Amino acid sequence: MFSNIGVPGLILILVLALIIFGPKKLPEIGRAFGQTLKEFKKSTRELTEDVMEDITDEKEKLSK
User: What are the Cα distances from residue 16, in Å, to 6, 19, 31, 33?
Assistant: First the structure.
């Protein structure tokens, strides 16, 4: 997805973000984005575990 951006594109995006949001707001935005990603990964992991648990339960029921 991001493989086509390249280094110049990333630098341009960072400079635009710095101009738009300012140097004081940028760390807050980055922190909030990081926390959002962390929660998303946690939710995805929990959902995957639940699905795998259900699959194993169904397999055990079928084998009996």
Answer: 16, 5, 18, 17
